[in-house]
Design goal:
The protein is α/β, with parallel strands linked by helices. It has 5 helices and 9 strands.
Length: about 250
């Protein structure tokens, strides 16, 4: 729903944000990377000004509280996740105040987590990555096709990032987080990394079957493409530590 002024939750979301903290040799925080899955559309079409929306408020608040640190925001699988906060009254002052409120709430949670975040294990493995350019049919015009470039990153075999372009439904993010056998699985949507085009909305199977905005309207990638992308990320994830062998294992 584009307008939800009564702030009624219509369906499931992924309520978690994931925070990565980068420190220097002295232990000072140099960067915070916030991963969260909700569209940056607190301000709607009634506002015609350039705005970083709630992530901009988040960044400003966190950087003010932790001098010398850079705060970055990475969007998750937010294909059909809009904020409950809606600054769409047409009153500029009130709408920006609503945006400020959401950004401040997220910033407060991030700042609290930043104080208690735990370091990963001592570095034992190099950063690894694997990229693929996958080919899909157009859902509606079988004479056309789409290329989608993805990259899977593995850090110290504890942090795994699935980077995929397009607006993916959050159920695909949940599938990755549930099935990736690492301590910290991150799902980065809207992310160009290895060529291909922009696939637009990428629905999961159930959403594609039920239809609606982003599920059959305003999407063009073939049915099942979302699950295929997740499977490819998982194949990459197990490949990088050398878990795929050339010969069968012992019975």
């Amino acid at each position: 729903m584009f307008d939800n002024l009564d702030r009624i939750p219509y369906g499931p979301v992924d309520p978690e944000f994931t925070l990565l903290r980068v420190e220097d040799a002295a232990g000072a925080t140099r960067a915070l990377i916030v991963h969260y899955a909700v569209h940056s559309v607190v301000l709607g079409p009634t506002s015609c000004k350039y705005s970083a929306d709630y992530p901009g408020v988040l960044q400003a608040r966190v950087e003010a509280e932790i001098p010398g640190a850079q705060c970055m925001f990475v969007q998750g699988g937010a294909g059909y996740i809009n904020p409950l906060f809606q600054g769409r009254t047409g009153n500029e002052e009130a709408d920006f105040a609503t945006t400020q409120k959401m950004g401040e709430l997220l910033a407060a949670a991030v700042l609290k987590s930043a104080k208690s975040i735990h370091p990963i294990s001592p570095i034992q493995y190099p950063i690894q990555s694997a990229s693929n350019l996958l080919h899909f049919a157009d859902r509606w015009d079988k004479s056309k096709s789409l290329e989608v470039g993805i990259t899977t990153v593995l850090i110290n075999r504890e942090i795994a990032i699935a980077a995929t372009p397009g607006e993916l439904m959050h159920k695909l993010q949940i599938a990755w987080k549930t099935r990736a056998a690492v301590s910290y699985p991150l799902f980065y949507g809207y992310t160009y990394s290895s060529g291909g085009g922009w696939p637009g909305y990428v629905p999961d199977l159930k959403s594609a079957a039920l239809g609606g905005y982003g599920a059959d309207a305003s999407t063009r990638i073939e049915i099942g493409a979302g699950e295929t992308l997740i499977e490819r990320h998982l194949i990459n994830l197990y490949q990088m530590p050398g878990m795929w062998h050339d010969q069968p294992g012992k019975p």
